[in-house]
Write a structure and sequence with these properties.
globular, JmjC_dom, Cupin-like domain-containing protein, Cupin_8
């Protein structure tokens, strides 16, 4: 897929003091060379074996297995559905991290290698001590740090709720991003049966079927891309669609996820699924009424929504939420849902 627009780049950012303007950006940014001083990135400049040996230093002897996603060579690295969209073209295996690394190195010279992907593995659990030498301060954010290891793979365009700082450690990657507003033009598959937890675009970026997906041309016109090398980082704002292609036989990425919402806040996806269950199939007139209700109490909500007619002590869920109030609402919802 041809993408002409490049993601804006910043060079020379101090990894010890990433600006708040970057970490709160509403648009993607490439931070060239942000991780150049990481020892694991320097190992990547030597060879895949050097990276694997470096990671072995931190691997827990008694650690739990990692989940390796494995697909046959015929999928060309694209972990996806089967032809019916009721199954997948890959399998998952629980293996020790060291075994996954050895397998990747073994297949690194095989042009017909199976697709192998160890995704979203929590660093502090599987590689304790790694972050003492390879880490980024993120302004006090309580970020989840994960490592992703694989060979040539293609991860379908999807959204993540948290903000994401994706850091390329080894190998090269191409990232293709779309604004959140391109939802209807990306032809998203099932919401509750997905390859890896998030709903994905059904469009194969390597072989776009424009007859089947005619509106994709509009999404393509809004796409931005970046080619990332070891030491580069990509900031992906919350809910931006992103397609990630690992281009080399051995790839490692570290990412940080964090939300700008309080820790006690529920995920909006729960709300979406409840709305599908309770509102989507109402008669059109009733559905339109509920659209107005949501706009009034949620999307257009501000102090003026209740000021002047509901005294502050009586506002309850109409007031700004805190952890206590959220817990009360959650308990009430659970009681109703479990009736």
């Amino acid at each position: 897929m041809q993408v002409d627009k490049r993601i804006p780049e910043i060079v020379g950012v101090d990894p010890r003091a990433i600006p708040e303007a970057v970490l709160r950006s509403e648009t993607p940014l490439v931070l060239r060379g942000l991780l150049a001083d990481w020892p694991v990135v320097q190992a990547a400049q030597q060879s895949p074996d050097a990276v694997a040996q470096y990671l072995h230093r931190f691997e827990r002897v008694d650690g739990p297995p990692v989940v390796a996603t494995v697909g046959p060579p015929e999928i060309d690295g694209r972990f996806f559905y089967d032809d019916t969209l009721q199954g997948f073209n890959f399998r998952r295996e629980n293996v020790p991290l060291g075994v996954a690394l050895k397998t990747l190195l073994k297949y690194a010279v095989d042009p017909a290698a199976p697709a192998i992907y160890v995704g979203s593995t929590t660093i502090d659990t599987w590689l304790p001590g790694f972050r003492a030498e390879n880490d980024l301060p993120l302004g006090g954010r309580d970020a989840l740090a994960s490592i992703w290891i694989g060979n040539r793979t293609r991860i379908a365009a999807h959204q993540d709720l948290p903000d994401n700082l994706a850091c390329v450690v080894a190998g090269t990657r191409r990232a293709t991003l779309f604004p959140p507003q391109q939802l209807e033009n990306l032809y998203i598959g099932p919401l509750d049966f997905t390859p890896a937890g998030q709903a994905v675009s059904l469009v194969d970026f390597a072989d776009v079927d424009h007859a089947r997906f005619p509106r994709f041309a509009q999404a393509q016109a809004q796409a931005q891309c970046a080619d990332l090398a070891p030491g580069d980082a990509l900031f992906i704002p919350s809910m931006w669609w992103h397609h990630m292609e690992a281009q080399t036989p051995f790839n490692v990425l570290v990412n940080y996820w964090w939300r700008q919402a309080p820790a006690w806040a529920n995920t909006p996806m729960d709300t979406l699924m409840l709305a599908i269950m309770s509102i989507r199939d109402l008669p059109p007139a009733e559905r339109a009424i509920w659209g107005d209700v949501f706009r009034h109490y949620v999307f257009d909500y501000d102090e003026d929504t209740v000021a002047g007619h509901v005294p502050a002590p009586a506002r309850r869920s109409l007031a700004p939420l805190d952890e206590t109030r959220a817990r009360e609402i959650r308990a009430r919802l659970l009681k109703r849902l479990n009736r």
